[in-house]
Amino acid sequence: MSELQLDAALHRALLGARDKREQRGATGDGTVVLPPLEPDEALALDGLLSPRKPILPGRPLRIRLSQLEAALRACGIDPHSAYEAAGGRPLRDLPAERAAARCGRADFRAWLATHEVARSRPTVAAWLQAAADQGRIRADIQPLVEQALRIIAVLPPGERVQRTVLAARMLDGNSHGLDVDRPLHGLIASVLAAAANLDPDTPAREIWSAWNVLVDPVSSSVTALNLPLLGETGVAYPIRAMRGTHVILTYGQLSASELRWPPGIPCFSCENPSVLIAAEQTLGNACPPLVCTGGRPSDAVRLLFSSVHRSGAQIRHHGDFDEAGVQILRDLEDRYGAVPWRFDVESLCRALHGLGHTPPDPRPATLEGAVRTLTTALPEELVIDDLISDLRAIGRTPT
């Protein structure tokens, strides 16, 4: 190539021409506008273009892309190679890319519409169309969508199957391919929830269960004390036999049979197991029903609370006085109509006063605002005596 290609004075001109060529594609033309030229740039372009009028420094330059490229070729310089050298990357053809993308989207939408699962399941087809409209599924993830539809096609199975077993069978032995942290899981769960007309916020475990797929029945558990479950089947009878002693129940045990909570008997809820163990040691079988969420509620906790809520009984919750603790309370309020148990602004102020701390002044209007005034969280272990006192009084009161 000629020395002009290596002339640094042409660098800005080549960059401007490269941008215009990418915008107009392989055959389009346009005007390249260069900002006021430096003296060396004006000299180099004047020599390259040999215009009728000299190109002067300090002035902008407007030149047709085709004219500049013709001048480069006349000097033995391939414009395409020069653009890539100046830009340090391959030259793009944006119009061709957009056309290819439009074609890819059209092909993808046609593939979705004609897929066997979409044709046989209108609710799935509707979800796929809406997801494509919103950009949630695209042509570039078609292999993932194909995997999802291949699995959805075999659901629900004739017999209940574990999700890991389903994954191993459908994903070439990859038993973790449908784990909750995998993109494939999120896609399938969204489709299944819509196809089963479930709320989008439904826990994944319940979504899979609606399609006869069992999700690891032992990893999710709940610790509880003195649950008054009705019935003689499933966990109800052995739980009553263990009154006075805490029990740890898995999601699988709780879901094996219908959970029935007697109406009118409240369910107390705490965030930390230390409260439940203290209640067990202090009150034993005189303690009213108490459930530990163990932080944010697990699927097993939610399954149990759902039975309480269905019975019309009230969940009374206490947690740590911090932002996470308040979020847990709000979640339980929204889902199960729970009410605070010594877990409001007034209770926090009393606890601070009892611990020798100064309550916030003026008093915040909400618990969210109150916990934000704390320099450190106030764990419920620091008010455990008050909680046990409440449980003792309730335990003595006929329900």
Description:
With 399 residues, this protein is α/β, with parallel strands linked by helices. The protein folds into three domains: 3-92, no CATH class; 103-211, no CATH class; 221-396, Dna Topoisomerase Vi A Subunit, Chain: A, domain 2 (3-Layer(aba) Sandwich). Helices cover 51% and strands 9% of the residues. The chain is built from 20 helices and ten strands. The chain has helices at residues 3-6, 11-24, 39-49, 65-74, 79-87, 94-114, 116-120, 122-134, 142-152, 163-170, 183-195, 204-210, 236-241, 251-255, 273-283, 299-311, 323-336, 345-354, 367-372, 384-396, and strands at 31-34, 61-64, 161-162, 213-214, 221-225, 247-250, 267-270, 290-292, 315-318, 339-340. A six-stranded mixed β-sheet has the order 6-5-8-7-9-10, sandwiched between helices. A two-stranded antiparallel sheet has the order 1-2. α15 packs across α20 (384-396). The model is unreliable at 1-5 (pLDDT under 50).
Total count of strands: 10
Estimate the global geometry from the Cα principal axes. elongated
Q: Report the β-strand fraction as a percent range.
A: 5-15%
What is the H-and-E element order?
HHEHEHHHHHHEHHHEEHEHEHEHEHEHHH
Based on helices, strands and strand pairing, what is the structural class? alpha/beta
- The N- and C-terminal alpha carbons lie at a distance of 95 Å
Regions with pLDDT < 50 over 5+ consecutive residues? 1-5
